[in-house]
Amino acid sequence: MTDLRRYQDPLTIQRVLHTASTIAIVGLSANELRASNFVGYYLKRHGYHVIPVNPRESEILGETCYPSLLDVPEPVDIVNVFRAPDALPGIAREAVAIHAGTLWCQFGVINEEAARIAEDGGVTVIMDRCLKIEHARYVGRMHWLGFNTQRITSVRAGLQ
Amino acid sequence: MTDNTSRAEEARAFGFETRQLHAGQRPDPNTGARAVPIFQTTSYVFEDPESAAAYFNLQEYGNTYSRIMNPTVAVFEERVANLEGGTGAVAFASGIAAQAAALFTLLQPGDHVVSSSALYGGTVNQFKHLLRKMNVDLTWVDPDSAGAWRQAVRANTKAFFGETIGNPAGNVLDIEAVAAIAHAHELPLIVDNTFATPYLCRPIEWGADIVIHSATKFIGGHGTSIGGAVVEAGTFDWSNGRFPVVADPSPAYHGLQFHETFGPYGYLMKLRAETLRDLGGTLAPFNAFLFLQGLETLSLRMERHVDNALAVAAFLESHELASNVTYPGLPGSTYRPLVEKYLPRGAGAVFSFDCAGGRAGGLSLIGGVTLWSHLANVGDAKSLIIHPASTTHRQLNDAELRAAGITPGTVRLSVGTESVEDLIWDLEQGFARVAATAGKKVATA
Asked: Where are the alpha helices (DSSP H) in B185-328?
């Protein structure tokens, strides 16, 4: 069993959240009730440039959709994956090929081989974590709904 | 994206005493207020129409209406969740409302619950009458018998329920063993942790899936407010096929699949966005503020509560007019091994004993004390005493009392944080009255 804590380091997560601007979402659904759509909508709302990657659609959330990561015509900071774990090694190879900064795999999207491929290719790996939740934890308003952000700080933050 | 890149937070495992002061609250970004502001408002102005829609769709974390969320209440919720080691919490206007909502979120008519039989009377009423009215069936089991839990499971069972420390018999739940049986049947274990508080025991660490609190008791700690909370561990698989009411598209929320969409937050999202929305029972912000004041000193008070409780229990155990002292922290308690495992810092501060002289003896004791407060509550910093046979259970005859596990002379104590010698002195006064009354009776007989 993979020790996932290695891919869930809070300092790495905060660095990735704070430095990224372009996020390609692999497996983004056009269905407004699916988790991937919730995440894409949220990230767009918070100022990230969201690029849908889904071979079955041409446009999602008002953004041009691409069939694969290799077709995305601009640099990608985060590759955010909503696919079955066995699809992950292929996606990791593509993430390395396009020089993505981070491979971010959602809850349950766990594949040790893919993590190794990405890391060997110089791509940061976050695994079994939700990008929306981590953003809401460190930047957003997750604490407004009584969730345990696990944050302890007496630093006065900026306006929300 | 954000401009606040300079102060990344380390993944430090902060201590309980730090978290009871800080968890859930950062200094107010608008004003810098260090204390938790009381947001006494029913509703919140939306930034723009799109934001309003995003909040109602649950696409964005946002405040809409204080029946469903409030920033002061949210601090209390997060603090309780943090101290219990849960993924989040939802607060309610009482412990009993919290419990009803926790169950309503995962049950539907035709379901079945297996519950410990050694419970707070208010819970017994809720289960026996309210749940049955909703066509939910119940099986009461001896909480000390692993076999009883196992044998009670049916195809339509949806949860196990027990109390960390039973009220008032002082039985200690073998949380790890009962959780293992629940999980073997793909069921969640719900534990009422009111008497232990997260300082003395954290049921989630032993496998519990949902923790219920009456915050009215030790969390508030000062007898000022009624309130409760539901905490979830966030690890239970609600998509295991037994819980369509949590996992399937929700007709009450335009087809949203709470567990699939929100993952470890799905149950709590549903609890808030549907059950709290539809049942009400919302905690008021001012009461949340008072509970937060209580939580800031939780560990300090509990240390004193358990020290005093053990001293008072030991005094009673050696007193000739007291018997059957149910404090599980006593060295001779049958629950000693479970106390050592689950409650190493102390076994709470609520227990009962039988006063000599039966009903008249219990009444004399209550009439003789002047420092202990005669009232129907527990968990106050002040010491509390009640005689069930003449108050909460006065409609029952002696035989019915015994069936409820109470004798005519049973007295329940909630030991406070006063000088312990004063508490013992006062009980001595009470026992003197018991002896005098009994003596008079003998003389006139």
From this structure: 197-200, 244-247, 258-262, 266-270, 277-279, 285-296, 298-317
pLDDT tens for chain B, residues 1 to 445: 444 445 677 778 999 999 999 999 999 888 999 999 999 999 999 999 999 999 998 999 999 999 999 999 999 999 999 999 999 999 999 999 999 999 999 999 999 999 999 888 888 889 999 999 999 999 999 999 999 999 999 999 999 999 999 887 789 999 999 999 999 999 999 999 999 999 999 999 999 999 999 999 999 999 999 999 999 999 999 999 999 999 999 998 989 999 988 999 999 999 999 999 999 999 999 999 999 999 999 999 999 999 999 999 999 999 999 999 999 999 999 999 999 999 999 999 999 999 999 999 999 999 999 999 999 999 999 999 999 888 877 777 777 777 677 889 999 999 999 999 999 999 999 999 999 988 776 544 3
Count chain A–chain B contacts defined by CB atoms under 8 A: 140
pLDDT digits over B353-389, tens only?
A: 999 999 999 999 999 999 999 999 999 999 999 998 8
CA nearest neighbour of A54 among A69, A39, A33: A69
Facing B27 at nearest CB: one of A140, A152, A154: A154
B294, B329, B344: which is the final residue of a domain?
B294
B250 DSSP assignment: B
Domain co-membership, B203 together with B106? yes
Same domain, B255 and B121: yes
CATH number of the domain that residue B187 is part of: 3.40.640.10
CATH code assigned to A4-145? 3.40.50.720
Residue B241 placed within a domain: yes
Which residue of B22, B60, B64 to mutate against A (max A Cβ within 10 Å)? B60
**Parent domain of B306:** 299-444
Helices within B159-250 (DSSP H only): 175-184, 197-200, 244-247
* Count of domains for chain B: 2
Confirm whether B51 is domain-assigned. Answer: yes
Which residues does chain B have within 8 Å of residue A159's beta carbon, measured at their own beta carbons? 29-30
B217 with B353, same domain: the answer is no
- CA distances from residue B208 to A95, B92, B123, B179 in whole angstroms, order as listed: 40, 20, 18, 6
